[in-house]
Amino acid sequence: MRIDREKGMTLVESAAALAVSSLIVGILFSLGLTLVKQQQGTAAYNEAKRTVLFVSDTLAAKIQNATRIDYSRTSTSVTLTLDTGVVFTLTQNSGNPTYWDVVYQGPDGRRTLGTVGFSMEDPNGQGGTTDHLVLTLWQSYEDDTGREQKYVLTSGFHVSVAS
Asked: 57: phi > 0 → left, psi -120 to 50 → alpha, else beta; which?
């Protein structure tokens, strides 16, 4: 009678199993890392978009109730004063001078709306009175590849035509 003592795996089989397992773990790790980077890029994009849209929507809501916009401009600030008593102040950010801190002051209090880059078509040069504004607002974010991108929005704002 013969006894079969070949139980277990050979060294070659163990090495092959280790190689396949390592390959699977590497793929799963890489996939997980990619998903985390994509999520971070998406979150950064959404935050940039939220900030720009919040500033834009607040400006639009308040300007539509006005009949006139008085504005003044210096090298480090822009002030928009509506005839409804609402004031928007954009002040150059001290940490990053390409961005501006936007502050709302109205009957319901004072609050900072956010920090955005902006460009304004200035209908009268350095200030004056107008019934419309065209602003380009932007916010930078880092995408999932680590590159800086910008969420950009150009909007026209017009005061109420009903007097």
From this structure: alpha
